[in-house]
Amino acid sequence: MPLIKIDDREIEVEKGITVLQAATAEGIEIPYYCYHPALSIVGSCRMCLVEIEGMPKLQVSCNTSIGELPPERKKDGKYDMIVRTQTEIVKRERENVLEFLLLNHPLDCPVCDQAGECFLQDYSYKYGRAHSRFLEEKRVRKNEYLGSNVIINHNRCIMCTRCVRFTREISGTNELFVQARGDNSKISIFEDKSLDNLLAGNVIDICPVGALLSTDYIHKNRFWNLEEKKSICTDCSVGCNILVYSQNNRIFRINARENHSVNGYFICDIGRYGFHRYEDAEKVTSPLIRSDGGFKPISWEGALKEIYEQFSRSKDGEKHQIVGIASPFHTNESLFMFGRLMDNIFKDKSIIGKLPFIEDYEIHFDSGFRISKDRSPNRQGLLDFCLNLEDEILQKVKTGKVRLCYALDDGVDRKLDEEWESFFKSQRFLVVQTYAMTPLAKLAHLILPGPSPMEREGTMTNDQGRIQWLKPSVSLTNKTRPDWEIIMEFMNTVGKRELKYSSVNEVNLEMGERFPSYRGMTFFKIGYQGLPKKNIATSRPSEGGQAGNTVT
Amino acid sequence: MDLIGFIIICIKVVVVFAATMLAVMGMIYAERRISAFIQHRLGPNRVGPKGLFQPLADGLKFLMKEDIIPAAVNKPLYLLAPAMLLIPALMTFAVIPFGSSLTLFGRQISLQVADINIGVLYILALTSVGVYGIVLAGWSSNSKYPLLGGLRSSAQLISYELAMGLAIVAIVLMTGSLRLNDIVTSQQGHLFSWYVFKQPVAFLIFLIAVYAETNRLPFDLAEAEQELVGGYHTEYSSMKFAMFFMAEYANMITAAALTVTLFFGGWDIPFVDEAAMGNWGALLSGIAFILKTAFFLFLYIWVRWTFPRFRYDQLMNLGWKVMLPLALLNIFITGGILTIIS
Amino acid sequence: MATVVKSYEPTFRDKLYIPALFQGLMLTFKHMFKKKVTIQYPDEKHVPPEGYRGLHRLNKYPDGRIRCVACEMCAAACPAHCIHIVPEPSPWEEGKERYPVRFDIDLLRCIFCGFCEMACPEKAIELTEIYDFADYSREGLWIDKAGLLEIYELTKTQNYYTVPNDE
Q1: Cβ-defined contact of C31 to B38 (cutoff 8 Å)
Q2: Domain tally for chain B?
Q3: Are B38 and C32 in contact (CB under 8 A)?
Q4: Residue ranges per domain, chain C?
Q5: Which one of A453, B227, B257, C103 is most buried, by most CB atoms within 10 A?
């Protein structure tokens, strides 16, 4: 393995990697704009110039790979390469490169959405000169739409061509290209093909300056006002890692988060702009009970009393049949609690089912990026925790007797066909746990307010069997309570249990106790990158049957 | 006593009471205005002409305020305390002559509510009762600052009452009577027959002691806002607080009137024989009395806005180590001179 | 070399205290007749000097457009966090591409330090000389964009408290 020296540090690196990669891995900062680990290397920004011993001129570190020298030619007797990043000449060249990059760049940081997370700002502050010597008129161009969601501000562009390479190499759609030469060059689209693929939003993320802007976020807020939360996307079963930016419990934008086991560096536009669905929905923030054809808010105590009346007392000697509708949109913890409620409390009186899965077409990009056809985030978890799941529930219960139904709602994406609508209408008492007035919720007798996807906390298992941490990015509003807590209250009320989990972590631990494939999958352990599920087959443990754990 | 005599006394009581209360209001106004002038301000000048109705507005405000009785107080004593302070303050005025006698419809009416022969003793007794109000207020409030205020007040009164009493003894020695009217009469004639000239040391001791007796700056240790929040009336609000306020000013008026009576010839105008002028003389003497009293009231305010408060140990030092020996010495000298002369 | 500080030895006159007391009384007496400094507020109003930091205003261009570009520099500089801005793309074609659709200042939180004025790159927010803006409710002390622009109209040509001569 080659041994190199960067400044005063000796580093042993793999053969063939670039100087920039070696330095970055070691924590030595070399500024760059055009380089992106997922894209091919062009070396066009010239920002990463370093001094390499034995080379007559400064070299672009992003495009200089490290090889091995024969022993007699090693520098200082042992190094394959000696790199200097902090010498006077390097500093002067950085200053000059920045001055060129900023020739036509406007001083409009106060209105630029990139301000605060802009590498031009950071590097100008760190390496640049304080004043411009450019006396001539700056080149001014008007903003243009590149696609329905992307605007380009040509003045701010530094021609790093990250976006062009992205459309060529990642999305493979080739919409963008560099038009004209020299001073006149600009990022452009062909007349008949705008930037409207499902990965288009990523060019905004990878743009190192404020040239590419999202129509969804432009002039909405400033970066430093936003609170950044690491979470995962719940819009399909891939479970892309995301960063959610919010202020005062309002989400402003979602960016991709790096996770090489799941989504790499990018996310699709479905997930990127999907959060608006929850904003538009009619929210449920208090328990509601049906009265006079409408809904009336009641307290949690009242709601639980109603549940007790309906589920616990047998009326006129009737035998209840209880239908539980689980949902692949909920976290593992909620589904675990739900399975426990159905199997261990209602036991053979109960039947557990689900609505048909929401499916769409599957999309594959050549780069390997995938959008799953299963548009529910946690089908795997549903199958893992609701072991007696009945697929053909409509046929099964047609012959049933008096029915009570407790349904976890899928959320705003769920549409009901006639068959299911009549099924729900025929229930004597329908409890729906939801966050919005969905078609299912409108049929309910009692609505319990749960958190919306952006408020949920727990683990999700994606279609590759990877357990990931869904972190809430906004806090619960009004009288809403976490899903697992509602189900716990349900169990305490109907099953006379005394469960007192104080947080989702405790539910998570209990879940690990009972399901070996999830054992030890604590939030601390899975972290922000997730862990694959253990491959152990499970059968549902009976309540209190597990050795050493009889607390229920 | 006949019926008419009784009615006349009643009228005198009402007149004196009303006049005192009116003077209290005037004092509150004067205090605020003069303090403002000393500080280059204007003071209250909005309610009525030159702000003259300000005390009325203040009174109205006090009446309308919420009357808070804290939960932990000793209720009967807590309610009694303001009255205990105000009533003796008003009663003291009964024995002070505020003019020579009036002759109406063949009846001689002395301008004094009660001409009793132990007037001086009566006054000393009542001022001692007044301190009960403060001590009770401090104790019954069941709060630390009022209690401290009450205790300070009682200690202060004991210390200064002695000096005040001994200062008066010198006057009594010279007059030979405890009747206040006699003291006034003995000062009639020319200007230098006033006891302030005959007994300057006694006057100084009396003046200082009287400031301490009325809890006024520089001796207002019982209130001492900066250290004790409000002292004995910290826990009082609304009209009860106003009663403490009124009592303080009523005490001042009485004390000023007493100073005038004892040392400045009372209602006497020098070189003028009021008795010979009949009713006009009575009127003139009344006016003279009021003017003299007004000056001492002004002095009260003037002193308050000039001097800082004594420290507690300084107060005790002054009382026991300076005033008391000085007063005793004064009595000896007075007695000695009187013996030699007679 | 050590300095020997000689403490003041009070004379007999000093020890009597009486002359000093009279001196003090005479001093306060003299002050009773000096010129009063009171400004009788609702009748006559204090005219604050140049640079006084009172109520805020939002400046406009001569053509009536708001100068503010909603960059939130003032909000970032504000130590009391009393400025709340909601930016949006501007409705006009030419010129500024961004403007505040809402610009609220919580006057109860504001400490009138003037940092917002200094942070502003567009000279859009300024503190005026207006000091008497008390109100009976919290809501009344929450000034919005329209209110701030109105303050600009009130103060752009003259001091708010100087009444024009021809009146």
Answers
A1: yes
A2: 1
A3: yes
A4: 56-155
A5: C103
Structure tokens at A386: 């609701």
Tell me if chain C has a CB within 8 Å of the CB of B306.
yes
Cβ separation of B37 and C37 shorter than 8 Å? no
Strands, sheet with A9-12, edge to edge from the N-terminal-most edge strand: A9-12, A3-6, A81-84, A49-52, A59-60
Q: Is residue B2 in some structural domain?
A: no
- Write the residue in A110, A219, A225 that is nearest to C73 by C-beta: A110
Helices B3-38, B238-263: axis angle to 10 degrees equals 100
Contact yes or no for A451/A473 (Cβ under 8 A): no
Alpha carbon distance B262, B12 (integer Å): 22
Does residue B238 form part of some domain?
yes
CATH architecture of C56-155: 2-Layer Sandwich (3.30)
SS3 A199: coil
Helix B238-263 with B144-175: angle, nearest 10 deg: 20
Contact predicate A365/A170, CB 8 Å: yes
Condensed to tens digits (0 to 9), the pLDDT of residues B101-145 reads 777 777 777 777 777 888 888 888 888 888 888 888 888 888 888
Intervals of chain B under pLDDT 70: 1, 274-275
Of B218, B205, B231, nearest in space to B152 by CA: B231
- Other beta carbons within 10 angstroms of residue C46's beta carbon come to 12
Task: Report if residue B1 sits inside a domain.
Answer: no
Rounded-to-integer distance, Cα B235 and Cα B72, Å? 11
Residues 6+ apart with CB under 8 A from B307: B217, B218, C21, C24
* A316 conformational bin, left if phi > 0, alpha if psi -120 to 50, beta if neither: left
Residue of C nearest to A217 (CA): C88
Cis omega (within 30 of 0) for bond into B44: no
Two structure tokens written together for A224? 């430093």
- Say if residues B35 and B305 touch (Cβ distance below 8 Å): yes
Letter for the amino acid at B51? G
Sequence letter at residue A70: P
Model ipTM value: 0.77
Which residues in chain B are closer than 8 Å to C22, comparing Cβ atoms? Answer: none
Q: Residue B306 is nearest to which of C18, C25, C34, comparing CB atoms? A: C25
Rounded to a whole number, what is the distance in angstroms from the first to the last CA of chain B?
39
Given B34, B41, B204, which is nearest C38 (Cβ)? B41
Residue B188 falls within a domain, yes or no? yes
Inter-chain contact C28–B41, Cβ cutoff 8 Å? no
From first CA to last CA, the distance across chain A in angstroms is: 57
